[in-house]
# Entry
Amino acid sequence: MTDINIDNFFDLLSDDSDVGSGDVYIDFKNTPVYWIGMYKKLILNHINFNKKVVEFFKEANEELDSDDIKEAGEFVVYNRAWSYIQKIDINKKDHIDAIEKYCDEYLDISLKLGILFFEQSEEYERCALLKHILDKSQES
# Structure
């Protein structure tokens, strides 16, 4: 039986040849492109999803108030979408570049929907940021 050298075994598992090779790994979830994309996706997809959820619960239990279900779904979606878009700083070039990457009518619609939603609960600071992002998007 052969003795196993533990140091040699661990050397097989690590590849130090790439250390310092200049490779850079970016955590995509911490980029403005991701934040804007997630905001847009959540807002636009929630409309269809919310319709299906309301229909499902109405069929499952006729006593449930579909308006309450709809409001609860909107609250969750808009606040989750806000958790992404609030990270955007319109004074930073890479953030402006991300806005320009996603600028289209659908981003504008999702931003306008967000403004309307947060106006209802008088969260005007949120509305202001969404309006600034909308203005940047429309400038592009």
